[in-house]
Request: fold
Amino acid sequence: MYDLIAIVIVLISVLFIILIRNIENLFLKRVFNWFPPILFAYLIPALITNLLNLDLSNVFIHNFSKGLIIPIAIICVMSAMSLSQLKIVGFKPLVLFLSGSLIIALLPPLLVFITKFIDIDFYTQILDEEIWKGLVTIVGSWIGGSTSQLVLKELVNCSEELFVSVLVIDNILVNIWTITMFQNIRRSDKINRILKIDDEKPKEIERIDLDKKNTSILLTFIIIFLISFFFYFLQLDFLITVISLSFIGILIGNIFDFWSFQSTLKFGEILILVIMSILGLKLNFHSLYIPNEMIILSIIWLLLHYIGMTIVAWKLNLHAAWIPIASMANLGGISTAPAVTAAYEKKWMPHAIVLSILSMVTGTMWGVLTIFIFERFI
Reply:
């Protein structure tokens, strides 16, 4: 009975979110700019279960989500990366972008380690209250997006109460950062003069199409489901499943000419809403809290990310416009990175799209690196 109730709540939540996000309404657009649909997909089921005093934290759908829905989402997202598109970006911008990702992945354990010598109580609280697990999920969110964030949440077993705090803090910071990068990219020429960078502007390239010609949606999803069910019945360790499906996704997306990038991305987006709604069934509002430590560390984290990328761009003699482009490709994703880029030069938007897709498929691996450092050295 509880399994059926859980499924109904999830379906209602997802359908409601899909419906309202497609409504052309200025107020709703402003709301979604600060609090995206994924957050509401998480909170609506939690609101229903808390109001009805239902405990749906142990229903079967949670195991089903981790065992099958998340793997399908991983394949959908990872298979969207066309390796042939990377050549349009160039070597130096790729180095800058990857350095930005590396900085994001390394800073959480480094900052936490430094607090040990500044404020031992602060350091102890981060570890004892497992706030570091929330930082790991932010790594996934910033670099890889929602899919990576959810995968990393499962890998570190981040609590629902901490996770909803992460979602709120994350979305507010990213929105503020997006506004900052909008202003920053407009000052790229001035930054070039200050840093004495004489690199030429990126060359204009043709618009990037996420789908190739002669694609087959049916064959694409047959392969996705066959692979996902195969791994579901294998019952491998979750981390092994994540890594395996990540590489398989990239492989099949590039070897099959009929692969439909656009369809897999859209389906993956819907699956993320489903996964978030399922996770929302576990959330208990009575235990909700927002750690000040996480807010402080996240702000310092963002600032050092930008400073680090600026230093790399200066060393590479790379046009300053690449700094906000690469930063937003890491933090903002496929929707906001091109928008920020267009504030300086619309013809460069394809570069931002390619880097955003690269970010989307590498986020989980960067998060795994962060987990490894935390567990081994902190």
